[in-house]
Write a structure and sequence with these properties.
globular; alpha+beta; single chain; five-stranded antiparallel β-sheet; 3 helices
Amino acid sequence: MNSSIKLKSKIENWKILSQFIESFLKKYYCNKNFVYEFLLSCEEIFVNICFYAYKNSESEISVDIYLIKNYIKIVFLDNGIKFDPTKFENKNINSKIYNRKPGGLGIFLVKKFMNSMKYARKDNKNILVMTKKLGR
């Protein structure tokens, strides 16, 4: 089972995307914690694409979501600036808050909440694939 949606890369469209994702997850009786972690991870990715991929312009983001065995897989596709979040340096969450540089905490959480995150650049498009194991 899969679903797809295309949206303009505008922050206001997060509400539409989150409803789309949540509706898909409800079909598989995902618990509240699963839904929270999945949505938070997707929000981080969507917002980063909107803010950074297009340098003050907007374009289209395609999102596909699948059930594959006991995993939910989500794919973000955009034609923005190349950025591989899997290579982004993890935050040192043990250092004191005033010693930390801003940024990166969201990607740290995505890596923590999702079971896998893979990135590819093909035909000038960013392709980010994330999976999370269903917890029933």
